[in-house]
Amino acid sequence: MEILVILIPVSLFLGILGLGAFYWTLRRGMYSDPEGDSRRILNHEYDDAPKQDET
Amino acid sequence: MTAPLRPALSACPACNAVPAATATAAGAVADARILLSVPGVHCAACISTVERDLNRMPGVRSARLNLTLKRLSVAAAPEIDSDAVIARLAALGYEAHELDPGTLSMTETDRQGRDLLMRLGVAGFAMMNIMLLSVAVWSGAQDATRDMFHLISAAIAIPTIAFSGQPFFRNAFAALKARRLGMDVPISLAILLATSISLYETFNSGAHAYFDAAVMLTFFLLAGRYLDYRTRAVARSAAQELAALEVPRAVRLRDGAEETVPVAEIAVGDLVRVRPGGRMPVDGVVTAGTSEVDRALLTGETLPVFAGPDTIVSAGEVNLTGPLTLRVTAAGRDTSLHRMADLVATAESARTRYTSLADRAARAYAPVVHILALVSFTGWMWWTGGDVRLAINIAAAVLIITCPCALGLAVPAVVTAASGRLFRAGLLIKDGTALERLAQVDTVVFDKTGTLTLGTPELTNLGDHAPDTLAAAAALAGASSHPLALALAQATAAAGIEPAVVDALAEVPGYGVEGRLNGAPVRLGRAAWVGADAAETTATYLAIGGVTHVFRFADRLRPGAEQVVADLHRQGKSVWLISGDVPGAVADLAARLNIKDWQADALPQDKVAKVQTLASAGHHVLMVGDGLNDTAALRAAHVSISPASALDAARVASDMVLLGRDIAPIAGALQIAAQSTRRIKENFTISIVYNIVAVPIALLGFCTPLWAALAMSASSITVSLNALRLK
Questions:
Q1: Which of B190, B350, B454, B609 could form a disulfide with B399 if both were Cys (CB 3.0 to 4.6 A apart)?
Q2: Do A29 and B24 lie within an 8 Å CB cutoff?
Q3: Domain assignment present for B344
Q4: CA B608 to each of CA B512, B602, B612, B632, B633: distance values in angstroms, whole numbers, following the listed order
Q5: Do A26 and B129 touch (CB under 8 A)?
Q6: HMA domain: from which residue to which, for each copy (chain B) (predicted)?
Q7: Are B599 and B530 contained in the same domain?
């Protein structure tokens, strides 16, 4: 049972990590165009050289 | 992009880039941000075609297409204007409209959505962790271990509920303050009661805690809330987009010099110039120039009307052939157009509100839930002789198990699925109850000009004329921008007729075009000016050497017009055509489309009267129209649709907006509406059946948290899956 002392914090930490990642994607506006993003996957344009931020 | 350059985030990455670009270009020229609505984009190829082409366009810094909103945002050098981009898109085959970025305050609605999504994410995270701990408890954790698990659950659940439950608590509080029992009151009560009882149980080493149920309840209800929000946000942003379609600018004459100013700055008494092809920005009296004005949007007349000095024109009319100078008699909110729009808006809000299925369900449901919980509490108090702890426990179980999750998801899930499907077909729902009302429609009333037809004429009697005549006509027509001349030039060009060589071509605004063919004068234009007898239908006249020729025109059908009428007939709906145009033109169109019931020369009040007569005969009427003359009828109908090209007033009055040019989706929309109403009713049945099964179990006190959680998830998931069947 002592293992729980490690496992529970670990699982909570991983969960919070996921939540943080979700918050980050949300702030970056990654859910603003779900339709377009799902189609953009099919686009080979930036496969070898991803588009760079211009600024 | 570096962090300090990113103060305000908005939905589109290109918009994000704008402040950054402005900041880096401080001192240098600032980029212009152009927002366009491109209703025609639909696929991966569209995205790459549009973006690649625009990024190659000189002066364009970046272009990004948002497929969800069908909106293109372009950052470009200041010398690039929207017209250039629109022309470029037209060459690619996409119709585009400029949007006014000022009117689109998309960050506000966006923040709301992001807020809901964040609460949903937090609730999801907490739900999963608490569920893990709960499974450990259910599988036999005892005494100290169980208490520890419960404590950890509490530590996760309480902040989560405090954060994620806020939308419900706020609504419930507002409802209570207004002395109402909304759906949010039982929800908040269940969440709070479950949390406090669980807390009490935890500190008293009880066997059962309801943290999992409370958090799961919050999660599923937030999911419903978010779906609901998504549907409305799409509708709202598109409605804003439509309002932003007309970028209001006018050319003011000041001391003889022209200056382009926003309409808001025009005052009564100013002189305003309206170029051919432009729309009157204000009400006014013509002081100089002759031309013809197109009043089709306001009156439904297809034929242009002559305008010269002292003619009174209204905002919204289109100037066709010559430049006009107007003395402004009313501007901005005082124009006749705006006053009409305001009237309609007022009447609209006064319309007896249709109560949606969800409202009716909630009204019946909320009191029942409270009464059931109270009954179980008093019942168990009496039965156990005053065991408050047990009684409250069971009452909470009842509140949770009657959780309106399924009910809360039933309508939003279906409406989201249906409106998504309609949006892809080119129809936008503005009003939440429109779908339910559309499902009841049995009679469809169409307006003619601008609705079933595009309002652009098409030559019908090309074969009646000799090639010489056509060649002369083609040459004259090519020199004018009058819609009839354009249609004539197009028809002759399509027939492969070489225009004759005509000298001294000159357009006489308001009358027509004249010139010299082999030394003899030729004229193309109005009957009286040419010296011909006026015909019944829309026509233009040609005079060569004393002989006159008539070119007849019919209104071009909107794409899908034939199909929509045929489809509606097949669905067993009755179809009416009511127009303000002359009987000849209306009868002709009715015959072409196989519509038996039609009415011509209808004034706006005639249209309303017709709709009301049909309604009082027990029919549910769908009105489809675009003009100011249709606005009142649109309002009077059970449900209404107007094309995106319609006037503001008509769009405000209607429940749905047709985004593309094709009118055919209307027939499909009726079917989707009927289907989705069926799904909503099925979903209600599912949640009622679930309650009938689950409530007695809870009432009798057999409900463990595990069962409550399982039953609740099962009902919510069933309802969502049922909604997805619509796709």
A1: B190
A2: no
A3: no
A4: 37, 10, 6, 6, 4
A5: no
A6: 32-97
A7: no
Answer whether residue B39 is part of any domain: yes
Do B47 and A12 count as a contact with CB atoms less than 8 A apart? no
* B249, β-bridge pairs: B262
State the nearest Cα–Cα gap between B626 and chain A, in angstroms. 30
CA distance to partner chain B, nearest, from residue A22 (Å): 7
Both B361 and B416 in a single domain? yes
State yes or no: pLDDT of B346 exceeds 70: no
User: B118 and A26: CB-CB below 8 Å?
Assistant: yes
Residue B20 has pLDDT above 60, yes or no: no
Q: Please enumerate in sequence order all residues whose Cβ is within 8 A of that of A9, keeping only pairs 6 or more positions apart, or say none.
A: none
* Residue B727 CA, distance from chain mean position: 20
Indicate the number of domains in chain B: 6
Chain B residue closest to A22 (CA)? B121
For residue B110, the distance in angstroms to the closest alpha carbon of chain A comes to 9
B118 and B215 share a domain? yes
Asked if the C-beta of B347 comes within 8 angstroms of chain A's C-beta atoms, the answer is no
Residues B200, B273 share a domain: no
Distance (Å, whole) CA B210 – CA B208: 7
Tell if the CB–CB gap between A22 and B43 is shorter than 8 Å: no
Q: Is-catalytic flag, B648?
A: no
Q: Distance of alpha carbon B445 from its chain centroid, rounded?
A: 20
Q: What is the ipTM of this complex?
A: 0.80
Q: Hey, is the C-beta of B25 within 8 angstroms of any chain A C-beta?
A: no
Q: Tell me which residue range forms the domain holding B720.
A: 357-421+675-726
Q: How many whole angstroms separate alpha carbon B599 and alpha carbon B582?
A: 10
B564's CB contacts (< 8 A; 6+ apart) are B663, B664, B666, B667
Q: Do A27 and B24 touch (CB under 8 A)?
A: no
Contacts of B436 (CB under 8 A, 6+ apart): B354, B356, B357, B673, B677, B680
CATH number at residue B498: 3.40.1110.10
Nearest to B17 among A11, A26, A55 (CB): A55
Residues B477, B523 share a domain = yes
Is B689 in CB contact (< 8 Å) with chain A? no
Q: B116-140 pLDDT, tens per residue?
A: 889 999 999 998 888 888 888 877 7
Chain B positions in Cβ-Cβ contact with residue A22 (cut-off 8 Å): 121, 125
Shared-domain flag, residues B86 and B135 = no
CA B429 to the chain's CA centroid: 5
Tell whether B596 and B635 lie within a shared domain. yes
Residue of A16, A19, A29 with shortest CB distance to B9: A29
**Candidate list B228, B447, B555, B648, residue with the active-site label:** B447
In a domain, B219, yes or no: yes
Q: Please say if the pLDDT value at position B350 is more than 70.
A: no
